[in-house]
Amino acid sequence: MDGIAYDLIVTIVNKGKAEKIVEFTKKAGAEGGTILMGRGTGIHEKAKLFGITIEPEKEIVLTLIPKAKTQTVLETILNKGQLCKPGKGIAFVVPVDKIAGINHEYLSND
Fold first, then answer.
1. How far apart are CA 93 and CA 39, in angstroms?
2. Fewer C-beta within 10 Å: the chain N or C terminus?
3. pLDDT 10s digits, 15-40
4. What predicted TM-score, i.e. pTM, was given to this entire model?
5. Domain count, the chain
6. Structure confidence at residue 86 as a pLDDT band (50, 70, 90)
7. Residue 84 lies in a domain
8. What is the span of the domain harbouring residue 75?
């Protein structure tokens, strides 16, 4: 690890909204994100079509971020993604104790 402390911001939004979340986080200082597909199972998530229960599809955005940028990026997600409004999604932060595979140094010793 390079001595920088990291957090993982997990954002869960309705299908089709994740690309915008990643776009917002990049403008706020993140380098990118990972989008995963998911399925809602909350009490308010179930809808019926012709009497058949449908589980709404969700997108999960994983944003690994230096702790120094966490608050700014999280606030951007909440505001730009309108997560303060009901049914728009949820975001939470998980502290990251260990990390491997990140290399932000570009060395050219050719």
1. 20
2. C
3. 999 999 999 999 999 999 999 998 87
4. 0.80
5. 1
6. confident
7. yes
8. 6-96
